[in-house]
Amino acid sequence: MLAVARGQAAPWPEPSGRDVGLQVAVSLAAANYLDPVTLQDQTAAPFRASSAPLRAQRPRFSALADDVAFPPFGNQMPQHPPLFYLLAGTLVRLLALERLSWDVVVWLLRLLNVALATPLPLLAFLAARRLLAERVAVAAAVVPLTIPQLAHVGSTVNNDGLLILTFGVLTVLLASVIAGDRDPRTALAVGAVGGLALLTKGFAILIPAWIVMVYAWTAVVTRARAQRALRDGLLALGTAMAVGGWWWVRNLVRYGTVQPGGFPFPYTAPEVVQPRLVTLLEQAVVSLSASYWGVFGWLQLPLPAVLTSVASAVALALVAVGLAARRELILLAVPTLGSLAIVLWGAWEHYRVYDVIRGLQGRYLFAGVVGLAVIVACGADRLLVWGSRGRVPPAGMLPLSLLAAAVALQATGAATLLDGFWSRPAGTGVVEGVRALLAWSPAPLRDIALVASAAVAVCHLAAGAARQK
């Protein structure tokens, strides 16, 4: 992002052609987070309010170190499509953010991802309302709030936020197509949003197949209008490839693969590797279940295993009921299932070559969170109807139940973060941990409260406008 802001990223670097800058590496030490030489260290540094530097004395990036490469830190970012980095870097440049202290720059970039994640409940509501009753749509809006890891990823600087947002918007549009929307303008919108998603991250490679599946399904179900469905599908697919598919064609032509690798791994392949599929699947169940709900930081701090296991079991049961009730909802699960397949395949290939299993992170499945929210809400509603012997439950019963679960999960996540990063490493209690958190924060509590209030107001207005349409 700094390279984009400083005009150092044109043309786009080769996949392994750029190292992390020394300024960024030194900022880790300035944040008291980790020694920049030991990036992979899994320990948390002790944070105390008394040792936090005064905000007025915190330097800019340019004052931390020279603007040179730091070879010990490889940079995987150039292997990804460029859209998020172009967006964030352009904002840094246009708003002249580098005149501010480095920690405020990072905070503002984190707020960018918060802004990208904020519409997810609204998108879940809109997608569900196109296919299901409004009471189910309201419940679907609550489901993304039940995932602490989603809040964690959505408040850090990464390219996941734009991927998840574009997939969420595309879910709404494709839900309209599934519900019978045959407007060519919708097909154009599907292609445009899908094309933007293709420029965000590797998992977006699913977009063309997803578009084909949805329009093929509509062609089969509505045989009298199959020709129109196929025409719209080609329009959507062609638009997506024109807007963002060119990046993948470029990779295939230049590197011989749609997703080139980044920096090489710090270990060599053993002479004989005998991978066992059952070993991979066992680890995948444990790792994906835990990290989908919450393994924070650099995979340092997990939520209690009992909590994540129960949450995963309940979610899977609700998904099964929802799909049994409305089979067409399987089309909304394509991003989750496709991302899971990519994760497992990538982990298997790495395991097969290096005899090490890696890459099993639940956040890689978040592209499908909006569609999954619709399915979960449908399943939960169907269970309530069955439990009420066919009677429709009160409109607020399901959303309030999910909201209670969300509060419990998010409170557990916040307590885990406060204890694991702020209280326990420094040998202090909760009060001192909160004091340290506020002292190290790049912004005073007043500004944080102002931003939070503005976000709540915007969400309230957006929700009201959506329900009136």
Secondary structure elements and pairings:
Blueprint: H1 2-5, E1 19-21, H2 22-30, H3 61-64, E2 69-74, H4 83-94, H5 102-117, H6 120-129, H7 134-142, H8 148-153, H9 160-178, H10 184-197, H11 207-221, H12 226-255, H13 277-293, E3 295-296, E4 301-302, H14 305-325, H15 334-354, H16 369-387, H17 397-423, H18 430-440, H19 445-468
Antiparallel strand pairs: 1-2, 3-4
Helix pairs in contact: 5-9, 6-7, 6-9, 6-16, 7-16, 7-17, 9-10, 10-12, 11-12, 13-14, 13-15, 14-16, 17-18
Number of separate strands: 4
- Order of SSEs: HEHHEHHHHHHHHHHEEHHHHHH
Strand content: under 5%
What's the rounded overall pLDDT mean? Answer: 90
Main beta-sheet annotation = 2 strands, antiparallel
Helix content, binned percent: 55-70%
Instruction: List the total number of helices.
Output: 19
Question: Biggest sheet: strands side by side, in what order?
Answer: 1-2
Question: What's the end-to-end separation, in Å?
Answer: 38 Å
Instruction: Give the CA-based shape.
Output: globular
Q: How many domains make up the coordinates?
A: 2
Q: What is the gyration radius calculated from CA atoms?
A: 23 Å
